[in-house]
């Protein structure tokens, strides 16, 4: 998708300057900004973020509704208890992001890199990770419903204690799940993926496999 393809593109107004905590931003365009500081509780409705860098910032309990994020970098950002709905995140890097206990609904991550992202206890519903790299992502105790990973690579993704429903992993390029056998109930996987995970299942059941 391009900026001009957004249904609210004609309403966007460029935003300059810092953000404020608990502020509400409607149809704002944040372009090429470098943001830092504490602006937790801010809400963004029909906003666009292009080339924005957010580093070592506090966005706890922030809300993103019908937002579009493209080409951004979020490094060391506190997004705990944030809410994401009807949002698209494209070609964006999230590194060292704390987003535990967040609620993510009807959201697409496309061609993104998620590294060292904490999503413990988060609720994900109708979420798509398309052509993404998820490395060292913690989904322990999270709830995933109707989540899919087409074309994505999962490395060191932890699912211990997670509750999955209609979570489709079949089209993932790679499943790197160090504790996968502990959190896959409710997931859909392919036969090939099952064979790859067989050693973990055997070990969990106390089965010794010898040829």
Secondary-structure element series: EEEEEEEEEEEEEEEEEEEEEEEH
Number of strands: 23
Report the helical percentage.
under 10%
Percent strand equals 35-45%
Which outline best applies? elongated
Which stretches are low in confidence, meaning pLDDT under 50 for 5 or more residues running? none
Please summarize the sheet with the most strands.
13 strands, parallel
Query: How many helices does DSSP assign?
Result: 1
The average pLDDT is: 93
Structural class: mainly beta
Rg estimate, integer Å? 18 Å
End-to-end distance = 52 Å
SSE blueprint:
Layout: E1 13-14, E2 24-26, E3 28-31, E4 34-38, E5 43-45, E6 48-50, E7 53-58, E8 63-65, E9 68-70, E10 73-75, E11 83-85, E12 88-90, E13 93-95, E14 103-110, E15 113-118, E16 123-130, E17 133-138, E18 143-148, E19 153-155, E20 163-165, E21 167-168, E22 174-175, E23 187-188, H1 191-204
Parallel strand pairs: 1-3, 2-5, 3-6, 4-7, 5-8, 6-9, 7-10, 8-11, 9-12, 10-13, 11-14, 12-14, 13-15, 14-16, 15-17, 16-18, 17-19, 18-20, 19-22, 21-23
